[in-house]
Amino acid sequence: MKKVIITLSIGFICLFANAQTKEKDLSNAEVFSAKSGTLMQKEFVDIGTLKKCEIKVIYFTDLISNTKQAALKFEYEVASSYSTDTKAAILDPDEIDGLMKSIKLMQEKVIPTTPTNYTEVSYRSRGGFEAGCFTSKGTWSTYLKLEKYDSKSYVWLTIEDLATLYTYLEQSKAKL
Q: How far apart are CA 86 and CA 103, in angstroms?
């Protein structure tokens, strides 16, 4: 009887843990801006637009404690037959260098190759944002995925768009 109870308990714990992983992971800036009991100010500074995806720097200020945090925001509107939905991702300042290095590696070492097998290369932030490329039959495709569990949050890029994205990241880094 004890084995049955222990087995059922472990099963429920595993199910609960699995359900928890489906929740959205948050960046440090999102955690900061979602604090309760605060008066939060958000200031948005436009950096640029890439394939209808707006890139902005956000400055969060807790007006009660006068603490501040900044982040980079990607925002993309997806239209369906009945409505428009906004997909968004927020990157913390400490994640931008990793994204920039990843873009450079994709441009210089990954995309010039021609793998014989299907291949994926991706960078992922702590909030679930993803930038990457994949190849099938020798042709590379590049993308941004703004929300981890949402297949409608892809922004499809050309290989040339990676240079523009890199420039926007340099500009945003100077403002963070």
A: 25
Share of the chain above pLDDT 70, in %: 86
CA atoms of 16 and 23, how far apart (whole Å): 11
**DSSP code for 167:** H
Q: Could you give the CA distance from residue 82 to residue 175 in angstroms, rounded to a whole number?
A: 37
Report the alpha-carbon distance of residue 49 to residue 171 in Å, rounded. 13
For residue 24, what is the DSSP state?
P
| pLDDT reported for residue 19 | 46
The Cα 111–Cα 125 span in angstroms is 21
Taking Cα atoms as reference points, which of 55, 32, 24 lies closest to residue 126?
24
pLDDT digits (tens, 9 = 90+) for 6-17: 444 444 444 444
Separation between Cα atoms, residue 81 and residue 119, nearest integer Å: 33
For residues 164 and 155, the answer to whether their CB atoms sit within 8 Å is no
Strands, E assignment, the chain: 40-50, 53-62, 67-79, 84-91, 119-124, 130-136, 139-145, 154-157
The answer to whether 73 and 43 have CB atoms below 8 angstroms apart is no
What tokens does 102 get? 């990843």
